[in-house]
Write a structure and sequence with these properties.
Length: about 325
């Protein structure tokens, strides 16, 4: 149905980095998982205390002894009804951050896997299905992993807020990777509107997820945002000057949210990236974070109903009439005629 509606790839499914410890997979492949361990991520810019996802990791030796058949089976199942696959936490083919039971996320360590075997298994199954693979190569990624993925035809993920050069400046569109899916943000980050207003800083401070003073976080965020607004203005994607927008944001005004959102999406269209991803939350002006990594009961992850800039729910049948949605998608529409 997706392909008949004009989507050449069809549906891109997601392969999570792990499974629930009480799942059928964990029961069927019990010897293949490392007991007393869970998968997570070390501290980084957006998750300063690290992450623990509570999912048991594959035991690299036992998985190799099983000729990677359990991993192959999961890949084949995910690809059976899709034209593509998003590989969550792409580092899973090379190394995983193991957190011992009872330890905090920052007390974990990296455990390595046979990258050649894991990657070969991935591309073999994708080739058999004729599918596209997009690797979420964000976070603490070994440079050679990105090189290996690109050499095998696996697309990476280029997230706008993270795309900076060696001096920390925002990358111009022509300097982005071609072999990637370009997005402004992901489901693990605040929507554009929330990011503009620094909502994520207030949220992380309230949840105790910051490791440095909130004043430093706010100042750093303001600098990065100003850099991006200047680049958008230089690329003639913003009519309003960066100074005007920043002053309005300081006053809590939302007058320029839609303009900046449209400019960011137009920027993505300027990049050479093979695929572009637009978040529905971004496209309708939702401000609330959909998922806050590092939390379970502290935040209602995946339970935020899609809403407009005022937080009023938007129903599926009403989407075609949302003006901001049309503006957000306009840069990606084929030319008329």
């Amino acid at each position: 149905a997706a392909r008949e509606s004009g989507m050449p790839i069809g549906i891109v499914h997601d392969l999570a980095v792990g499974v629930h410890p009480g799942s059928a997979d964990a029961w069927m492949y019990r010897p293949m998982f490392a007991p007393g361990m869970s998968v997570g991520a070390p501290p980084d810019e957006f998750n300063q205390k690290g992450q623990n996802w509570g999912q048991p990791p594959w035991h690299p030796g036992r998985l190799a002894d099983a000729a990677y058949l359990p991993f192959r089976g999961m890949l084949a199942a995910a690809l059976r009804h899709g034209g593509g696959l998003r590989l969550d936490h792409a580092m899973q083919i090379s190394r995983l951050w193991w957190v011992p039971e009872g330890a905090s996320a920052d007390e974990g360590t990296y455990v390595y896997y046979d990258r050649e075997a894991m990657l070969s298994t991935l591309v073999w199954e994708a080739a058999q299905a004729g599918a596209v693979v997009v690797a979420e190569d964000l976070g603490t990624v070994e440079p050679e992993v990105r090189d290996d993925l690109a050499e095998r035809g696996v697309l990476g993920t280029s997230l706008l807020w993270f795309e900076r050069d060696a001096e920390g400046r925002p990358k111009k569109p022509e300097d982005w990777r071609e072999s990637s899916l370009a997005t402004v943000s992901t489901h693990d980050m605040p929507p554009i509107a929330g990011f503009l207003h620094g909502d994520h800083i207030e949220l992380r401070e309230r949840l105790g997820l910051l490791t440095r003073p909130v004043e430093e976080e706010t100042a750093d965020h303001a600098r990065q945002l100003a850099d991006w607004l200047r680049l958008l203005h230089e690329e003639e994607l913003l009519d309003t000057t960066p100074e005007e927008i920043l002053d309005a944001l300081k006053e809590g005004s939302t007058d320029h949210d839609a303009e900046v959102t449209a400019a960011l999406h137009a920027f993505l269209a300027y990049t050479p990236s093979r695929l572009v991803g637009v978040s529905l939350a971004d496209a309708v002006g939702e401000r609330r974070t959909q998922n806050q990594p590092g939390t379970t009961d502290e935040y209602p992850n995946w339970r935020i109903p899609l809403g407009d800039p005022e937080g009023e729910p938007i129903f599926l049948e009403d989407l075609p009439s949302v003006p901001m949605l049309e503006t957000s998608l306009a840069p990606f529409q084929p030319p008329s005629g």
